[in-house]
Structure prediction request, 423 residues.
Amino acid sequence: MATIITKEQQEKEKMVTLVSSDSEKFVVEQKVAEKSHVIKMVMNCCGIESPIPVRRVKGDILKSILEYCEKHSKGEAQEVMEKWDKEYMDKAEKDLVFFHDLMLASHFLHIQELVDLIAVTFAGMLKMKSPEEIRQKFNINNDLTKEQEEHIMTTFGWAFQPI
Amino acid sequence: MVDFGRLPEECILHVLSRTSPEDVCRAAMVCPVFRSAANFDFLWEKFLPFDVDDILSRAVDRIEYSSKKELYFNLCDPIFIDDGKMSFCLEKSSGRKCYMLSPKLLRLEGFEWISLRDSRFSKVAELVDGPWLEIYGTLETKILSRETTYGVHLVFSIVERSRGLDRFHKATVKLGGNVSHRVGRFRGRKRKQPSSNGSNLAAVEVMEPHRRPDGWMEIEIGEFYTRDGDDGEVKMCVVDNNARHISGLIVHGIDIRPKC
Prediction:
């Protein structure tokens, strides 16, 4: 868990402060923040003395992401991590708005392991689903033109045969 | 509720790369961003076999393509490789590899070479009049897809005046310590498997032939599972060594493809 600690400790453990788009502050160890390639670059060029704004990510999402980064910076056994990841994703996919924002944020912050984990989970949700089922589940408008649909059917039509 | 159709293409591309070719084709119909992601080379490159360059270099005819997606779909129809002794294709829905060995790659006892107009390979083998039937083949499993159960099918046809093909033959497929034993026959009315009183055939599966989409017949002679691509050589054989006269079987090859 990301916790707020004193300034003395911050210096001792090389802490960095991240600020979400809704001004929530999170103080985490540098190695945790480094899991994000983007934050790592910012820290490399601007240092860790002043708080780093994470403008496109809201507090609840940043909190969850930092939880993930913290767990993944400990170097625990693979089985432990797989179990933890599964529970983390089970929770995330229950709330699709949260899942959506988590996905966007992991891409924006460039956290490759998390991007992959979310992609695998999302891919599992698309498995054997018809386009209409996917649209309904993920609230997607079909903006394809008739021409585009026909073009798709010429190459991909075989996949729509009854399973 | 948020609209997942407004996610950046890069996100969707990542997700689609973790699905299957079949799921991608269906997802392309969801909305423009899914459609656009479904066409990326990055995606289809992942679905192509890792040794696709080697396969293309062994192709008899040059395979033309302008994108990885086009290459993928071109390879879903069989191509000839290794001087036409083998054919290769991808199973469309999964991208897993399928091979067919021509009779030239098999060891056949008592067969003669003939050409048939509509067979896949230029030369096929006809069992003219043998006292028995023996067909052997081998294949290195490292050329196959990993972690896949493959079915092995003998592709055949029967000439009008054949003999002895309604007898039961034994088929064995062996990979390492795993052996599958089958009993089958090339023709004959459906009936119960050979009587089990005292026979050692009782415990094995009895296979019946099926018609293939290309019009030839096939019979599944066994199956095997590939683990990590380093399983060694799979050995296949079909034998009937108790016949007195057996003739009229035309062997078109052995088809090795993933089982559903």
